[in-house]
Write a structure and sequence with these properties.
alpha+beta, Immunoglobulin-like, 5-stranded antiparallel β-sheet, 9 helices, flat
Length: about 600
């Protein structure tokens, strides 16, 4: 029995070995699954048998900076043949995020084989990227991106400036550059300062002479306290470095090397405003300001109007706090204020003025005091709170009706009435009647009966006309679509009006109204929305350029409003502008 089992066992082992040796392997391998946005990734597609029609994945989220490189190894050891073929690619991620490298395919022995998808996590730039060649080492030593921060420890809502400078050594050149990863200032109010031209300047970096250009200037106002991280700016640059080759005159030839440089992350330690001695009317103003309350006139007649202006001037976070409210006697009719901003932003922060202008209409003659108004702010230079107060203003109404007053004499006099016993006090009560019988006729002979009988027959022609109109309306697909869009626009504008004062809800409803209106009027889908296409389509339909500009500006306001402080006055203006613009487009569309 054992003599039979042994040959069978050996046979099974030989078959298993031959099957294993004949198994096809086709797989993808990466150098790492987590890398910085400034690093390089190598991916190898390996197979143990030769194949045809190799199709790599699309690499949509990466730039192919090298490859495909093909390597083949074919050798025999101890009578056992080994074969390996590899396709290699070098990839540079386009941005941060989680990405998937999809399947590659190849045909081996008339069978199609696929690799498994690979997930790659691309993080922020790292300080020591991999994949540097000798030329890249030279480039990395001679080119530096620096973020210069004006103040690393500001107070809450105090302005700081970040200036990004690109330093290049005298032996190195730069042929082109592009921003690969732009920092997102999530915990800051931010505004970029326009740079007109890139002026090359001379300077020093770590004690050595360099040339540099200022690429970006940004003003930041921190909105949170504690350690806030500034994300790095990342650039893709083509660097020209000297090579070992020389021209016929002995001068070194330059080699162009793609290089990714980063400014590195910075941490800003934001100090909270002191709670000690904080005024009760403090609303978040930080800087150096003046405060003034003025009226266009102090003497007028009833039902005439005057303007009262509350203005804050100076340097600080002007767009990030509200002007104090006006308080007047109830006898004066006051309308919602008109908000005005005259603010410019430079490397020193916001400067200018903000103001609320109220229209006041007195109803009665008299003298009415406008009480003193106070305004408090925090001065980061002296690290103390300051309060400014306006003078009391007397509004003298010269002519008009007198306000009604109730004196004690008026309210208590003539409260009793004498009763004359000789008059017939209860004469209104009737003691006799003059009723008459009511004549009635049978209902089936009445006019109401015959009217009810004939009414269905008279309604038949009317129903036929109504049905035809309804069929015509239902057949008008485009008209129904326009009517539905109009109803949606009115609905969302109504929701936007209800959400007045709630920034995110208001602008979301306003944006939906504009989008639904365009979907019907221009017959485009939401996926096709972009400002250039909308502008071209409206102009093709003979809409005035001013109206088109207003419409595009409303869309831009809806986008920007999510990231910037907005007052209720601005919301009201945007709502009125949207309603007016939709009405004008309706009239002009052809």
């Amino acid at each position: 029995m054992n003599s039979i089992i042994k040959p069978i066992t050996i046979l099974f082992l030989i078959l298993a070995t031959s099957i294993a040796s004949a198994q096809v392997k086709f797989e993808a391998k990466v150098s790492k699954k987590k890398l910085g946005v400034n690093e390089r990734l190598r991916i190898d597609f390996e197979m143990n048998q030769d194949g045809d029609n190799f199709v790599p994945p699309s690499f949509a989220d990466f730039d192919v900076v090298g490859g495909p490189n093909t390597s083949v190894s074919n050798y025999s050891r101890n009578g056992k043949r080994s074969y390996n073929k590899t396709y290699s690619y070098f990839l540079a991620p386009k941005k941060r995020g989680n990405f998937t490298i999809k399947q590659a395919t190849i045909e081996i022995d008339d069978e199609t084989y696929k690799t498994f998808p690979i997930s790659i996590n691309v993080t922020a730039a790292v300080s020591k990227p991999n994949g540097n060649t000798a030329a890249s080492d030279i480039a990395s030593e001679n080119i530096h991106l620096v973020a210069e921060v004006s103040n690393g420890s500001p107070f809450l809502n105090e302005a700081i400036t970040v200036v990004y400078k690109l330093y290049v050594s005298t032996e190195t050149g730069v042929s082109n550059w592009r921003e690969k990863d732009i920092p997102r200032y999530n915990d800051f109010w931010s505004q970029n300062i326009d740079i007109k031209g890139l002026n090359v300047q001379e300077g020093e970096y770590k004690g050595e002479k360099y040339r540099y250009v200022v690429l970006r200037k940004t003003v930041l106002y921190p909105q949170k306290t504690g350690a806030l991280k500034l994300e790095p700016l990342v650039l893709d640059i083509t660097v020209e470095v000297p090579s070992n080759r020389r021209d016929i005159f002995g001068r070194p030839l330059m080699s162009k090397v793609p290089q990714v440089v980063t400014a590195g992350s910075r941490t800003i330690n934001v100090k909270p405003l002191p709670e000690k001695e904080k005024p009760s009317d403090f609303k978040g103003a930080v800087g150096d300001f003046t405060f003034n309350v003025t009226t266009s006139k102090t003497q007028l007649n009833a039902t005439e109007s005057l303007q009262a202006k509350i203005e804050v001037k100076g340097k600080g976070n002007l767009k990030l706090f509200e002007v104090p409210k006006l308080t007047v006697p109830s006898s004066l009719e006051v309308y919602e204020p008109e908000h005005q901003e005259n603010v410019r932003t430079n490397l020193n922060g916001m400067q200018g003025s903000i103001a609320d202008t109220y229209t006041i209409v007195p109803q009665y003659r008299g003298k009415y005091p406008v009480p003193s108004i106070s305004f408090s702010y925090f001065d980061p230079v002296s690290e103390s709170y300051k309060r400014l107060s306006s003078d009391e203003i007397i509004i003298d109404v010269l002519e008009g009706p007198m306000a009604a007053t109730n004196t004690p004499e008026n309210t208590t006099s003539n409260t009793k009435q004498s009763v004359d016993p000789n008059t017939n006090t209860f004469a209104f009560i009737k003691t006799t009647s003059n009723w008459t019988p009511i004549k009635s006729e049978p209902f089936f002979k009445s006019k109401a009966f015959w009217s009810l009988v004939l009414l269905p027959f008279l309604a038949i022609p009317l129903a036929i006309v109504v049905r035809r109109k309804k069929d015509e309306r239902d057949a008008d697909v485009q008209g129904n679509r326009i009517r539905r869009a109009d109803r949606l626009a009115k609905k969302y504008l109504s929701e936007a009006k209800k959400a007045m004062g709630q920034k995110e809800a208001f602008y979301l409803a306003l944006e939906k109204a504009l989008h639904n209106y365009l979907k019907a009027k221009l017959n485009i889908e939401t996926s096709d929305f972009n400002k250039e296409k909308i502008e071209n389509l409206l102009k093709e339909r003979k809409v005035d350029s001013d109206v088109v500009t207003d419409f595009i500006s409303i869309l831009e306001n809806c986008e920007l409003a999510r990231y910037t402080p907005i007052t209720q006055v601005t919301m009201q203006n945007d709502y009125d502008k949207a309603a007016r613009t939709i009405s004008l487009i309706d009239k002009q569309l052809r």
